[in-house]
Input
Amino acid sequence: MIPESVDVLTHPLVQHKLGQLRDRSTSTADFRRITRELSLLMAYEATRDLSLEPAEIETPLERTACSILSGRRLCFVSILRAGGGMLDGMLDLVPDARVGHIGLRRDPDTLQPVEYYLKLPESLGERCCIVVDPMLATGHSAVAAVSRLKQAGARTVIFVCLLSVPEGLRTFAESHPDVRVITAAIDRQLDDHGYIRPGLGDAGDRMFGTA
Output
């Protein structure tokens, strides 16, 4: 069963661009570009519940009422290294957001995350923290990243990924039932090496042209 905290985006543009990312013939340059475009689309959903307050402005013709963002400020947190490709699209939409980075690598034997870098903005408790990573596979890296954010004072956290699998989503929900997950697809399963099937390959390798 998929946790109730998970939202799968079925918008036609989201699904179209995800299909392009899955295609093994998509070049490195196109993979980066499409990831950026897809992340921008997903950012609209991730920021759907931001609060607004009334304001007044001068148009070229007259003074009028409008709405501006209020309340908590935004912080995008990228899980290195592949999260950087999603971060670019998010910042296209909200260029004045603060940015944090969490470096996690997966131990190939235990599949557990090992932290190697952490840099976060101050006052996380006053911000809505949107964590980005292309893949939610075993769920261990996502759990570790959100745990570090909460330790640093974050109270409102959203996790955004391109792909996920049921077992990873369940693992994440067991540790962070209060965190909403936004994903473009829930794939079939993990294989014996912890890769998502059918998936799109290693997102970092495809994004940066490494093997």
The mean pLDDT is 93. Residues 6-208 form a domain with the Rossmann fold fold (CATH 3.40.50.2020). The first helix runs from residue 12 to 22.
